[in-house]
């Protein structure tokens, strides 16, 4: 009987007959522990994979030492494979890049209170589409639509699973087979080759481009209107800015033009905020409540950008337009699940108190964070690093909001600069990324920069410990 605890002493090269049996391995103590931790099926599959690899090497006369065939060696190999298989793909991350809405790092971190609420919904049954009082089926939109209207001042609202879907849905519901007029300055392309002309084509609309890249006048829109015009479209250029010799009509002018010709105006706001950010130096980002005062017929915004919630596309506007959107056949395909709705509900409730929302929603807290507070945090982290022998100093720098929003606008910050690294800057950054928790920073001139603005509460100490442990 095969004994995995006994290593093979023979100096003779191992052959196929020396390969241990699967059953013998699985019944050994080392593999019993792996089975208890990971389950019999995945461990058995990995044992067979490991043995197949050894078998192929032996058949191909590729060197395989006798020690590789022992139970201990195979258990170690299978254990490593299981750890990799079961390791979370989305591990916990410390974002020290200074980019508040880092698309690759999941954009907006969720408010803890909203997460707690969603966890309750996720772990049991919920009133997703049931009216508690009557006991009859209800509309899942009611979980959030009234809150959206209250926070934004909209007449009606609905929500789908992302803002790109909201744009596609609105265009198809209101302009399928008809013309949509849009300025050439608004022919946006965002990540993943999402291009407005392509979206219109997929939505069944005919795009009518007006104006020039830098200048579009109200008369350009007016002269393009025909009996077949279904929409006037304005797209917020949230991921780029055109500056210099520029001009475009105000939203109020576009709305007035649409009213005269009975053509609705659709504003794809994208990263839109529900609160005024101008007091924090963000001047180019209009708020939804302010835009609705213009009389615009329909607006859509992202949930996981400046709003600070989950991925979603919120649609607000005239009740008749919202009703048309909801009756579109695409709407059911794009609707949100109970967890997204619970996260939206929890986040929207935080907006009911505007005095507290900047502290309760992590995205807004990072944007509104006092530069003096950021500097104190940087100095505290720097002192800890120096005490551990790390060559660190602080320096004035800039944070970005990111996530395809507020282009060209920056927030003043203080970063921790780590120089005289024991390895290259790229290798040091890689070591930090592969640590637990995973740490992301910036590299400038062979220096690692860590921005405290994007740290969540309590992460200052964790960041210092991670940098010290990585021995950068």
Description:
This protein is of the alpha/beta class and 472 residues long. The protein has three domains: 17-86, no CATH class; 93-102 and 366-470, Aspartate Aminotransferase, domain 1, CATH 3.90.1150; 112-360, 3-Layer(aba) Sandwich (Aspartate Aminotransferase, domain 2). Helix content is 41%, strand content 17%. The chain is built from 19 helices and 16 strands. The protein has helices at residues 22-26, 29-38, 40-59, 71-86, 112-122, 145-152, 163-175, 196-202, 218-224, 251-261, 288-292, 319-327, 330-334, 338-350, 354-360, 362-368, 371-387, 425-433, 459-470; strands at 93-95, 99-101, 156-160, 179-183, 189-190, 194-195, 206-210, 229-235, 265-270, 298-302, 313-317, 392-402, 410-418, 438-440, 442-444, 447-450. The strands form four sheets. The protein has a seven-stranded mixed β-sheet with strand order 3-11-10-9-8-4-7, with helices on both faces. Strands 2-12-13-16-15 form a five-stranded mixed β-sheet. It is globular, with a radius of gyration of 29 Å. Mean pLDDT is 91; it is low at 4-10.
Give a quick rundown of the structure.
This protein is α/β, with parallel strands linked by helices and 472 residues long. The protein has helices spanning 22-26, 29-38, 40-59, 71-86, 112-122, 145-152, 163-175, 196-202, 218-224, 251-261, 288-292, 319-327, 330-334, 338-350, 354-360, 362-368, 371-387, 425-433, 459-470; strands at 93-95, 99-101, 156-160, 179-183, 189-190, 194-195, 206-210, 229-235, 265-270, 298-302, 313-317, 392-402, 410-418, 438-440, 442-444, 447-450.
């Amino acid at each position: 009987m095969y004994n995995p605890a006994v290593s093979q002493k023979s100096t003779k090269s191992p052959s196929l007959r020396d390969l241990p049996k699967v059953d013998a391995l699985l019944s050994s103590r080392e593999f019993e522990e792996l089975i208890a931790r990971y389950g019999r099926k995945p461990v058995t599959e990995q044992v067979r994979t490991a043995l197949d690899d050894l078998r192929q090497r032996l058949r191909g006369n590729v060197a395989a030492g006798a020690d590789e065939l022992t139970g201990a060696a195979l258990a170690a190999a299978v254990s490593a494979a299981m750890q990799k298989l079961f390791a979370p793909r989305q591990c916990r991350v410390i974002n020290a890049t200074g980019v508040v809405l880092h698309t690759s790092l999941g954009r907006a971190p969720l408010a803890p209170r909203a997460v707690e609420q969603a966890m309750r919904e996720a772990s049991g049954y919920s009133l997703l589409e049931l009216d508690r009082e009557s006991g009859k089926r209800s509309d899942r939109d009611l979980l959030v639509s009234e809150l959206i209207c209250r926070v934004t001042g909209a007449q009606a609202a609905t929500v789908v699973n992302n803002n790109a879907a909201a744009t596609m849905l609105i265009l198809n519901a209101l302009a399928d087979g008809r013309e949509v007029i849009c300025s050439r300055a608004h022919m946006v392309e965002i990540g993943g080759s999402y291009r407005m002309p392509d979206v219109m084509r997929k939505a069944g609309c005919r795009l009518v481009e007006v104006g020039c890249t830098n200048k579009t006048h109200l008369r350009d829109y007016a002269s393009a209107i025909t009996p077949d015009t279904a929409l006037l479209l304005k797209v917020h250029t949230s991921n780029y800015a055109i500056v210099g010799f520029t001009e475009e009509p105000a939203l109020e002018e576009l709305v007035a033009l649409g009213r005269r010709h009975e053509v609705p105006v659709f504003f794809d706001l994208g990263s839109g905020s529900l609160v005024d950010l101008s007091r924090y130096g963000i001047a180019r980002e209009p708020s939804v409540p302010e835009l609705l005062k213009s009389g615009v017929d329909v607006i859509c915004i992202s949930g996981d950008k400046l709003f600070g919630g989950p991925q979603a596309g919120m649609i607000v506007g005239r009740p008749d337009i919202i009703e048309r959107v909801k009756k579109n056949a695409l709407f059911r395909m794009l609707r949100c699940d109970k967890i997204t709705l619970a996260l939206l509900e929890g986040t929207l409730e935080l907006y009911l108190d505007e005095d507290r929302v900047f502290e309760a929603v992590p995205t807004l807290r990072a944007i509104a964070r006092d530069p003096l507070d950021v500097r104190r945090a940087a100095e505290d982290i720097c002192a800890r690093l120096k005490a551990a022998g790390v060559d660190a100093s602080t320096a004035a720098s800039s944070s970005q909001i990111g996530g395809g929003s507020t282009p060209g606008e920056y927030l003043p910050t203080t970063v921790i600069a780590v120089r005289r690294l024991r390895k290259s800057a790229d290798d040091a950054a890689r070591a930090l990324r592969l640590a637990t928790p995973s740490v992301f920073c910036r590299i400038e001139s062979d220096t690692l920069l860590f921005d405290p603005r994007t740290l969540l509460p309590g992460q200052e100490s964790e960041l210092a410990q991670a940098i010290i442990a990585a021995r950068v």
